[in-house]
Each structure stands twice: as C-alpha cells, then as structure tokens.
Amino acid sequence: MSTRRTSAPAEFTITTNAADQPGVFATAFNSGDPALLARVYEDGAVFVPESGAAVTGPELHAANAAFLALGLPVTVRPRHCHVAGELALHIVDWSITGVGPDGEPLHITGTATDVSRRGPDGFWRYVIDNPFGTMP
C-alpha cells in the first residue's frame, strides 16, 4: 500500500551531484507540486510520456500534471549514472503503485533513460526525461 502525497518539503534544492538527480526528481514528484517538479527540468527540456510522443514547454508540464493527478508517490531505483562533462545519462527503474483516484488498484512501472545537464550555476536539471525509455 502506498501513501498519498500531502505537501511540498519545507526546503527543496536541486542537486549539484548528477547521481542524486533521480532522488531529487522523486522528492519533487512526491510533493505533488507542479511548480516544484518543473524546477528539475531545464528550459526547453523534452518529456516522453509515451513511446514516440515527445513534448516540451507547456505540454511537458501538462503531461507531468497527468502523472501527478494520480495522487500517488513514485519510487525510483537508479541503476546507472554515467557522466561526461556537463551531461549525465541516467538509467532508472521506477514505479507508481497504490489506489488510483478512481478507487482501483494502480501499478505503473518503467525503466527511464534520462539525460541531465549541469547548468552554469552548477545544478543538474533534466534535458530529456524518457520514463518508458526501454519500451519500443
């Protein structure tokens, strides 16, 4: 059984360590706050909410809002983080499990293939968020 999200953390900071990016994403997602979640992405980032459908800008935030509307937390299990200069490739197993808004059991899983970039300020943000990255 999972716990529904209730509020944003008192203090939230994006990370200066690429390997921490998936955990930072989970904290932002689990807050349920779309503005907080938007902070883990750089301007112009791409989100792939389903195979073959990449979105950016307002569509990225709308697609994330659909996942947030489930009202359930995400669990992340990073497999790999490969850093090359200012870029990092993340391979992350994740799941959202619990009782959905319709009262029915819900279980969504995936293996993300994500890319983040270290900005001039030293903080890492997603450039590409592909939660179903290993699916055809």
For the structure shown, list the relevant keywords.
alpha+beta, 136 residues, 20% helix
User: Share of helix among residues?
Assistant: 10-25%
Per DSSP E runs of 2 or more residues, the count of β-strands stands at 6
**Major sheet, described briefly?**
6 strands, mixed
Number of helices: 3
The secondary structure category is: alpha+beta
> Mean of the pLDDT scores?
91
Shape: globular
Radius of gyration: 14 Å
What is the end-to-end distance?
A: 30 Å
**What is the N-to-C succession of helices and strands?**
HHEEHEEEE
Strand order of the largest sheet: 2-1-6-5-4-3
Uncertain regions: pLDDT < 50 for 5+ in a row? none
Summarize this structure briefly.
This protein is of the alpha+beta class. Helices cover 20% and strands 43% of the residues.
Question: What do these coordinates show?
Answer:
- The protein has 136 residues and is of the alpha+beta class.
- It contains three helices and six strands.
- The protein has helices spanning 21-31, 34-38, 58-68; strands at residues 41-50, 53-56, 74-84, 87-99, 105-118, 124-129.
- The chain has a six-stranded mixed sheet with strand order 2-1-6-5-4-3, covered by helices on one side.
- The longest helix has 11 residues, at 21-31.
- It is globular.
- The chain starts with 20 loop residues before the first helix and ends in a 7-residue tail after the last strand.
- The relative contact order is 0.23.
- The mean pLDDT is 91.
